[in-house]
Amino acid sequence: MQTSLLPDDDLPSIGEQVVASVRTGAAGHHSELWASAEHPLTPPAGVPAGEARSSRRLSPTWRHFFESTGAKAWAQMAARRAEVQRRVREDGATYNVYADGSQSTHEWPLELLPFIVQPPEWALIERGVLQRVKLLNTVLADLYGPQMLLREGLLPPSLVLAHPQYLRPAHGIVPRGGVHLHIAAFDLARGPEGRWWVLAQRLQAPSGLGYLVENRIIVRHQFPEAFSAMHVQRLGSALKGMLEGLLRLSAEGTAARVALLTPGPLSETYFEHVFLARYLGVPLVEAGDLTVRGQRLYLKAMHGLEPVHVLLRRVDDEWLDPLELRAESALGVPGLLQAVRAGHLVLANAPGSGVLESPGLTAFWPAVSQRLFGDDLLLPASTSWWCGESAVWQHQRARLGDFVVARTFPAAGGGEPLVVAPQTESGLRALASVIDGDPAAYTLQARVRPSQTPVWTDGSLEPRSAVVRVFACTDGRGGWHVLPGGLTRVESRLSGSPDPWLSMQRGNASVDTWVITSGPLDDTSVLPTPLTAEQLQGRDFAVTSRAAENLFWMGRYAERAENSVRLARMILDTLTSATPPSLAMLGQLAVGQGLVDAEVPSPVQSARVFERSLVEALSDAKDSSSVAFNLKALRASAQARRERMSPEHWRMICEAEDHFLQHFDSARLEGVASSDLAAVLARTATHLSAITGAQTDRMTRDNGWRLLSVGRQIERLDTLADTLATAFETDAYNTDEGFGLLLQLFDSVITYRAQFQARREVLPLLSVVIFDTDNPRSLAWVARTMHDRLRKLARTDAAWADEVLAKAPDPQTWSLRALGTVDDDGHYTLLVETLRECIAGVRELSDQIGRKLFSHVDSVHRAVWQ
């Protein structure tokens, strides 16, 4: 592999801009990598000297790259880099950063030029990685089995058994095929002397595969000529082999169902979970999508439980099973270890592998390799000293400034090491004192200065330190294969402090990794064989219960927010001028919809107090009935199902919440007039109308969309029935003002006036708002739509649909004459009672849908297969 633009015996200067950064310390720890720092780089043949600023010759690798790309490569660099950034944005590739103590979502940082590895060096890497993964798999089998290595002292029991990620419940578990490590990742760096070193190993739930593929898809299209001319090995065969290896380990073989378990949207690498699931063609699931019944794992699909035989996880060890591991975990599945223990589930990777990520074990691997296989390690790790051995710590204490200090027992997900060198003398003394307090918790590691790769920036090339994450995947036959590529991380000019591990959390970037092959190229695709017309005919895509529930509540939250905004606007517009019956109706509706507390004086008693209470409550995001809460909940539900929405749809949802909170809070705190607050609500209503339009016009009409629509109709039927009942309970309907407000709340003013002009009569009113099936805001239309869509999405269990819909409200069966008749006291008692029964019925229907389609509590016995 060429780690610079010049041959190894002629290390380069990279131009004035980089020279300045070296001299000021941004890249100073690499200054020994080149002999001279005063000459820019040689341009490829045909490139004007002014474009590349050069006077020295290129290495053969990079000369081949630029010559294959063409003479105009330098002139096109800026446009190509802009295209890379555009593709990242279009793909929605993101990375959630938590290093600063708060979550922030960043675009995936992808640089233009690839990291190139030549065949001889890749052959060494491949052999070394295969040797290590075999070693580590054997060690795991021993640690969770006979524990020979602990008894013989080859691994310190105090280091292994004290590790919080040594899972005692996993002792005795023998995973299918004896494979503990289905996917293993190793962070490698090439030192200045040209030797490869292992910096770290990621064995629980190694991340990066999805980003690796995303990098390849984007960068390959920027340099198609060079990619072809340099014989870069493809990734498809290795990824397909990974999937096939997992299937071979399952008892069901190629018929096995595979799923990818994610911690959820708050995970720092959530984008790659979504991307990888799509690329491999497997469902992306969270813990709530899964359940264990009879020591078998099932996916809670909308129409029942479906077996899962292989689970590719992105959840760390200790969170996997709240029954046997961390009881507070909401990321794991109760009983998951039982399914693995019984041999019914291939869990990739097997639980308990996190213990081997400890840097404290690094110094013991050479002896363990000799004991188990009689082999020296081909890829050595950086020299390390575990401070738990008192003699080691006392010997190295005075040299603390020479080392990197790492936590022996990193928290779940790993812990970033601390580079000690920049510490002051007082800082070193303080750190030494901390280590004195608990030496076993720390490990000292020799500093490795990763070699460099060129990065194009601002019209020139700069050298950046590079660390490569290489992946080994099981073949399902007792061996592994190495993915011909890797996730290469390069330092950022803005990183600001030494970071030999080049963590993405510290603001570093990535590049595509090209492995050159001297043999044939493998054009295998990970994509399945083309579907036939027969297979596509009548195909029905499964919707998981969690996806269904999120879509259901997307509909409900959008409708609920829209109804609340409409009511709040009406109250603010009429509070100072409305008659007592209208005020009583509006106040009772506000209390019923949770916009104000029942203890607040009604608007009839104190309009000013009621207004202040309403304004305060609307933007209280902690109040489950507020507009702010519903907008936030809508956004959260939508985020979990973002793949179902167009970018414009998602942007409208985000803008609705952001605009409301920003402007409403600002206006409220400044004490502006209610008319100004009403203007903010009007803008929010426009956003919500656009969201409704996107849901209606831009989403596929499948079962997920039908469930979203059912949720919206349930919320609408509940709210409208309550509105109509309240209007008649308060006698507000009996005044011109109250009659008009009621039509406005039903959004049916135009519909009514088109048919009945200025009549203010009860029977025409009930005809429009209850029975008119051409009016999308009438109870009959809403109920009919709800019935039709629920029956269609539940067609696989028509008996259940018939049963629940038979008890659900159906206004088309009501009698206009009966509902429009007053009792002896002059009240519309039957109308109000019917409406209240409708509300109770629709709420019971919502509960029935939750039990059947989300929780599956009614289908356990008939859905579980023994």
Summarize the structure.
With 866 residues, the chain is α+β, with helices and mostly antiparallel strands. The chain contains 31 helices and 22 strands.
Question: Would you kindly provide a written description of the structure presented here, covering whatever features stand out?
Answer:
β9 (296-301) and β10 (304-308) form a beta hairpin. The chain starts with 15 loop residues before the first helix and ends with a helix. It has 31 helices and 22 strands. It is 45% helix and 12% strand. By secondary structure, the protein is of the alpha+beta class. Mean pLDDT is 84; it is low at 1-56 and 859-866.
- Rg, Å, rounded: 33 Å
Number of helical elements: 31
* Helicity level: 40-55%
Q: Tell how many strands the DSSP assignment holds.
A: 22
Describe the biggest sheet? 7 strands, antiparallel
Amino- and carboxy-terminal Cα gap: 54 Å
- Uncertain regions spanning at least 5 consecutive residues: 1-56, 859-866
The overall pLDDT average reads 84
SS content category: alpha+beta
Morphology: elongated
**Percentage beta strand:** 5-15%
Topology:
Blueprint: H1 16-24, H2 49-52, H3 60-69, H4 73-91, E1 94-97, E2 104-107, E3 115-117, H5 119-143, H6 148-151, H7 157-160, E4 183-190, E5 196-202, H8 209-220, H9 224-229, H10 236-249, E6 258-261, H11 270-280, E7 284-285, E8 290-293, E9 296-301, E10 304-308, E11 310-313, H12 336-341, E12 346-348, H13 365-373, E13 384-386, H14 390-396, E14 403-407, E15 418-419, H15 425-437, E16 442-446, E17 452-457, E18 460-474, E19 480-482, E20 487-490, E21 509-511, E22 513-515, H16 533-536, H17 545-574, H18 580-592, H19 607-618, H20 627-640, H21 647-669, H22 674-697, H23 703-729, H24 736-745, H25 749-756, H26 762-771, H27 779-793, H28 798-807, H29 816-819, H30 829-855, H31 860-863
Parallel strand pairs: 3-22, 6-7, 6-11, 11-12
Antiparallel strand pairs: 1-2, 4-5, 4-18, 8-9, 9-10, 13-16, 14-15, 14-16, 17-18, 18-19, 18-20, 20-21
Helix pairs in contact: 8-11, 17-18, 17-20, 17-22, 17-23, 17-30, 18-23, 20-21, 21-22, 23-24, 23-27, 23-30
